[in-house]
């Protein structure tokens, strides 16, 4: 959490510029966007905690922390996130196919 | 090869081909066709589940001996399910094709990446 | 075992279906408006026709030695399902009442609404997994039809997306049902549960579980299907969207209950439970983050629906009795306050548009409506004494009792996000200073009395359930105790 907050405040101007590009540069929307960024990272960190606790593997925790590190270095992530969540059919289908594949592998391993 | 196994394999191939077409072909009509292929694969799975070698159709006729019929009858439940599913599939197909026509009239193309792009 | 009861339970499904056929024939007639109002009144009393217990259609039982298998469709009604059906019908009735205040009401709309109500209540009550599938598909077609009914090009696109992916997900769900049928030899959920509990797993059963989860994701709007659902809610007219979200919330609950009932207590369900919790976390976080980025009020509400769906799924995915109670209760609460919010959006969008940047300063023109919208917003954030608070408290309690504090923390984080964007929306719509021209425009707004009436009833329900949650919780608890298992993450 602390890391992600530092990351956001360091790139605040960049963040605001990016929001203004989409015509939502008023303080309310920028605040909401920053909250979104914090929630995204906060929940990522929490999921990493949970996963490392469930599988009790140090390696997984290290991989998770490095993923978060890479994420922070490509700040702000939220705009890329928005792009991936757009309603373009091909992106939606791509994620659904990934989902079906991952789910099959997960349940296959569960045997 | 066992006929039932062959039929299951064919159904599996149909489903996989349909899924491939649905996810990766960039044409609305082809996507709809792929969906109907998936549906047919599922229907084939259901029908082949009820298959019995040398069995009778599950309709009791007075000329048949009851004992013979009851032991050699194909499993009727999946056939009823398939019948229902075909009706549902046909109605879905009709709506989707009608909407495709509307989109084609507007955009003069069938590419999904153009019609259903981000908005 | 197989006994036909003298009750009118099938009427809950059959009556709206028959009426929907009649409405589709008389859609141009002038009496549609009156008949719609009449239907709205009948729908509220409909759930009380059924008596509790199992209803078998036809008497086909196959006796195999000592076990007797049920063949044929069976419906089950118990207090928990009755509460769900009642909530569904009540919201449907209120939406129909506010639709009678619309200028362009035609019979097709009422027909689709009734068909949807019938199919979703059948999904809730069905004890037969194939019957569930049939009504799942009908619900898909109905929802697409309701979106198409709003008539804009974007709505057509959203409906087309929904249908394309719906056909895929529906076919896979049927494949799963076929696999389960081949593995267990029955379609009856109770019989299938007994079979699965007493036999070891085969690949067909894993395949069935996989396909059921895909169907669940689509039906309930969990990621990665959330963009399609959100698209659909935001393209439909707002008061239609309130019905659509109610449908998908109850489909989510019903399918989740089926999965829990079939596999809940089995040793190989653990990883699936993990997958379901992951999906629900995804739903919560993605929904909130996307909602925080929206400028359009309808889109904001659409993504908010996704995030609350994540809460419902999280409660049910935990799978303890407390978690199931919390999940179902939150689903019911969500259906109520979210319908209120969408109805509010319907009234607001009459003012000018749903783009929040163009609105502002509406408070003096509709103070009562604004107050009710604020109530619904506070309920969704989870402020006492409103219903959202009660169910969120139960959810967090369930997560803590199952020893998953991380999930509880994520729930609170997401609640904070909900607070931010809901207050943002309230400020931008009602409080932001606006120009003189806008005030002149606002003076011409005509607020439909029917919509305000529906909104008021929903707000009263929010407060009532917030003060007396036991009305619902006591009815759900025995059912949850039956299908839930007690466990805790011990690592």
UniProtKB/TrEMBL annotation, chain B:
**What NCBIfam families does this protein's entry cite?**
PRK07375.1-3 (NF005618)
Q: How does it sit in the membrane?
A: Multi-pass membrane protein
The transmembrane residues are: 6-25, 32-51, 80-104
Q: Where in the cell is it found?
A: Cell membrane
Classification via Pfam families: Oxidored_q2 (PF00420)
Please tell me where this protein is predominantly located. membrane
Q: Which organism is it from?
A: Methanothermococcus okinawensis
List the protein's name: NADH-ubiquinone oxidoreductase chain 4L
Tell me the PANTHER family matching this sequence: ANTIPORTER SUBUNIT MNHC2-RELATED
UniProtKB/TrEMBL annotation, chain C:
Membrane topology term: Multi-pass membrane protein
One GO cellular component term noted in the UniProt record for this chain: plasma membrane
Q: Is Transmembrane among this UniProt entry's keywords? A: yes
Q: Which InterPro entries did the record assign?
A: CPA3_Na-H_Antiporter_D (IPR050586), NADH_UbQ_OxRdtase (IPR003918), ND/Mrp_TM (IPR001750)
The portions of this protein that span the membrane are: 7-25, 31-49, 83-101, 108-126, 132-150, 162-184, 204-225, 246-269, 275-293, 305-329, 335-351, 363-387, 407-430, 450-468
What does the record give under GO molecular function?
NADH dehydrogenase (ubiquinone) activity
* Top-level taxon: Archaea
- This protein's UniProt keywords: Cell membrane, Membrane, Transmembrane, Transmembrane helix
Name a single GO biological process: ATP synthesis coupled electron transport
Which subcellular locations apply to this protein? Answer: Cell membrane
Residues of the NADH:quinone oxidoreductase/Mrp antiporter transmembrane domain: 126-413
Classify the main location.
membrane
Give any Pfam family that matches: Proton_antipo_M
Q: Which NCBIfam families match?
A: PRK06277.1 (NF004920)
Q: What protein name is recorded for this chain? A: Energy conserving hydrogenase EhbF
């Amino acid at each position: 959490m602390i890391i992600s907050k530092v990351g956001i405040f360091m790139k605040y101007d960049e963040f605001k510029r990016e929001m203004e590009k989409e015509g939502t540069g008023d303080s309310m929307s920028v605040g909401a966007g920053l909250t979104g960024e914090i929630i995204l990272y906060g929940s990522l960190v929490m999921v990493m905690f949970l996963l490392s606790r469930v599988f009790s593997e140090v390696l997984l925790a290290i991989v998770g922390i490095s993923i978060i590190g890479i994420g922070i270095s490509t700040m702000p992530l939220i705009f890329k996130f928005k792009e991936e969540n757009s309603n373009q059919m091909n992106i939606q289908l791509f994620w659904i196919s990934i989902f079906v594949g991952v789910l099959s592998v997960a349940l296959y391993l569960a045997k | 090869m066992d006929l039932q196994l062959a039929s299951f394999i064919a159904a599996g191939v149909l489903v996989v081909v349909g899924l491939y077409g649905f996810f990766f072909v960039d044409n609305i009509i082809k996507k709809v066709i792929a969906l109907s292929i998936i549906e047919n694969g599922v229907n084939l799975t259901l029908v082949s589940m009820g298959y019995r070698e040398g069995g009778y159709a599950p309709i009791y006729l007075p000329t048949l001996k009851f004992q013979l019929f009851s032991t050699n009858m194909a499993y009727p439940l999946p056939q009823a399910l398939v019948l229902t599913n075909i009706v549902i599939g046909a109605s879905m197909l009709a709506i989707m094709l009608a909407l495709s026509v509307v989109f084609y009239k507007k955009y003069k193309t069938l590419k999904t990446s153009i019609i259903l792009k981000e908005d | 075992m197989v006994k036909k009861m003298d009750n009118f339970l099938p009427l809950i499904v059959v009556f709206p279906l028959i009426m929907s056929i009649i409405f589709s024939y008389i859609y141009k007639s002038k009496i549609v408006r009156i008949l719609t109002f009449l239907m709205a009144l009948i729908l509220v009393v409909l759930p009380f026709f059924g008596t509790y217990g199992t209803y078998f259609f036809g008497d086909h039982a196959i006796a195999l030695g000592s076990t007797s298998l049920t063949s044929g469709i069976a419906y089950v009604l118990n207090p928990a399902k009755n509460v769900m059906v009642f909530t569904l019908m009540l919201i449907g009735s209120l939406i129909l009442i506010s639709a009678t205040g619309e200028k362009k009401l035609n019979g097709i709309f009422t027909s689709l609404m009734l068909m949807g109500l019938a199919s979703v209540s059948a999904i809730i009550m069905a004890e037969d997994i194939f019957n569930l599938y049939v009504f799942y598909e009908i619900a898909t077609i109905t929802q697409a039809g309701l979106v198409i009914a709003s008539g804009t090009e974007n709505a057509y696109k959203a409906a087309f997306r929904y249908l394309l992916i719906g056909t895929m997900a529906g076919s896979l769900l049927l494949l799963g049902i076929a696999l389960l049928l081949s593995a267990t030899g029955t379609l009856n959920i109770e019989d299938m549960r007994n079979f699965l509990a007493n036999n070891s797993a085969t690949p067909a059963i894993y395949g069935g579980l996989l396909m059921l989860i895909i169907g669940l994701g689509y039906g309930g709007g969990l990621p990665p299907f959330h963009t399609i659902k959100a698209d659909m809610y935001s393209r439909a007219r707002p008061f239609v969207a309130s019905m659509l979200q109610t449908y998908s919330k109850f489909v989510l609950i019903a399918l989740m209950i089926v999965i829990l009932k079939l596999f809940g207590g089995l040793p190989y369900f653990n990883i699936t439970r993990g997958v379901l919790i992951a999906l629900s976390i995804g739903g919560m976080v993605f929904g909130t983050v996307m909602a925080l980025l929206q400028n359009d009020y309808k889109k904001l509400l659409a993504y908010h629906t996704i995030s609350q769906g994540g809460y419902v799924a999280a409660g049910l995915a935990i799978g303890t009795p407390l978690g199931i109670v919390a999940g179902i209760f939150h689903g019911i609460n969500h259906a109520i306050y979210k319908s209120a919010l969408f109805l509010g959006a319907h009234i607001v969008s009459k003012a000018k548009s749903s783009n929040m940047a163009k609105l502002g300063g509406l408070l003096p023109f509709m103070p009562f409506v604004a107050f009710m919208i604020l109530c619904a917003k506070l309920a969704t954030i989870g402020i006492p004494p409103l219903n959202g608070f009660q169910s969120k408290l139960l959810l967090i309690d369930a997560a803590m009792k199952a020893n998953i504090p991380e999930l509880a923390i994520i729930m609170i984080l997401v609640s904070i996000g909900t607070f931010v964007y809901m207050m943002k929306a309230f400020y931008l719509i009602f409080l932001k200073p606006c120009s003189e021209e806008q005030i002149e425009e606002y003076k011409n707004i005509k607020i439909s009395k029917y919509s305000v009436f529906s909104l008021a009833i929903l707000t009263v329900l929010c407060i009532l359930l917030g003060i007396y949650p036991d009305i619902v919780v006591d009815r759900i608890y025995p059912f949850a105790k039956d299908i839930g298992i007690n466990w805790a993450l011990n690592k």
